[in-house]
Specification:
Length: 246
């Protein structure tokens, strides 16, 4: 699949909905007070070349707004000059993460006995999963805030007799369907909840006539990557978050 990098990165920020987003040359600059790396990290819109001098300019933009700059940069040969400039400015690559892409048609084959509930707004049941025991409460609150204010999401959750047990969202913008915020409470993992949510959201994508899809997942999350691979996702590229050394 040929990947339209710019539209995918714009779709990513449409979903995680930073407080504000600015453009600078070939970069998007999201600004927010959050733990969500994608919502606070400058990201290039092309992978063949960026002007390395833009690193200092971006850093200044963030400092002027009271933020320490972070960068989310693909680990590809075309961006080596940006990597070198980041190293020179005291940044180091952290948190390797995969951008995976695929086609929506394969999502719908992931159905299980679970019956997810879909809503156009963030429901209390959906929010409760992110605040459940076993998840970071601050990060959960930040994800609820960001995903709730997005204008392009459909929300999904699963409940059983104990209450909400799984949640997730799909974004629909820029011609992409994106999966975001998939969460299953610890004692219910491995029971097909995530597959059921993905299948239900995939049917929404099909109804909207959207076939290409993407997600981001940390490289060390082997179980999630295994699931996504079964659903036809393939790695488009790996990226690092570049942050100042402590």
């Amino acid at each position: 699949m040929e990947i339209d990098i710019e539209s995918l990165e714009r779709a990513t920020l449409d979903a995680v909905a930073p407080a504000s987003v600015e453009s600078l040359a070939d970069w998007l600059l999201p600004f927010d007070n959050t733990t969500i790396g994608r919502a606070i990290s400058a990201v290039p819109l092309r992978h063949d070349h960026v002007d390395p001098s833009s690193i200092a300019e971006i850093e200044l933009h963030y400092l002027q707004r009271g933020h320490q700059a972070q960068f989310r940069v693909a680990d590809v040969a075309g961006l080596r000059s940006a990597h070198d400039a980041l190293l020179e400015h005291g940044y180091s690559p952290q948190q390797p993460t995969l951008t995976m892409v695929g086609t929506v048609g394969e999502w719908t084959q992931a159905g299980t006995d679970w019956a997810p509930q879909l809503t156009q707004q963030a429901s209390d049941e959906w929010k409760a999963v992110y605040l459940s025991e076993g998840f970071d409460a601050l990060d959960g609150a930040n994800r609820i805030r960001a995903l709730s204010r997005s204008t392009c999401l459909v929300y999904a959750h699963i409940t059983d007799d104990s209450g909400p047990i799984a949640a997730g969202t799909a974004s629909f913008s820029q011609g992409w369907a994106g999966l975001h915020g998939l969460r299953t409470i610890p004692n219910m993992r491995g029971k097909g909840c995530a597959q059921a949510i993905i299948a239900a959201l995939g049917k929404v994508a099909i109804s909207k006539g959207i076939d290409r899809c993407f997600l981001q997942v940390e490289e060390n999350n082997a179980s999630a990557i295994q699931l996504y691979s079964r659903l036809g996702f393939q790695t488009g590229w790996r990226y690092f978050y570049w942050r100042k050394k402590n």
